[in-house]
Design goal:
By secondary structure, the chain is of the alpha+beta class. The chain has a single domain, classed as Stage V sporulation protein G (Arylsulfatase, C-terminal domain, 2-Layer Sandwich), CATH 3.30.1120.
């Protein structure tokens, strides 16, 4: 499946933390989802979906790729944009 994701904005961070960048992703040139993060994990870089704080103080994802294929495609597009910037 060829999904039409495009990074519309990417901001790299210079800090020491695990979050390396924030980005917004356009989907099929129809709408933008803000708040994706590029994170350095134990196994390397990965893309974290947008999340928001709940009333209980915990963080909850607010976007969910429905299949592994969609998640893989999103990761490829975002990480490619991160490495090219």
């Amino acid at each position: 499946m060829d999904l039409d994701f495009k990074v519309s904005r990417l901001v790299k961070l210079n800090g020491e933390g695990s979050t390396k960048a924030f980005c917004d992703v356009a989907i099929a040139d129809q709408f933008i989802v803000k708040g994706f993060r590029v994170v350095e994990g134990k196994s390397g870089l990965f893309v974290s979906v947008p999340r928001q704080a709940g009333k209980d103080g915990k963080w909850y994802n607010s976007a969910f790729p429905l299949t592994a294929e969609v998640r893989q495609s999103l990761n490829e597009v975002v990480l490619s944009a991160y490495e090219d910037s």
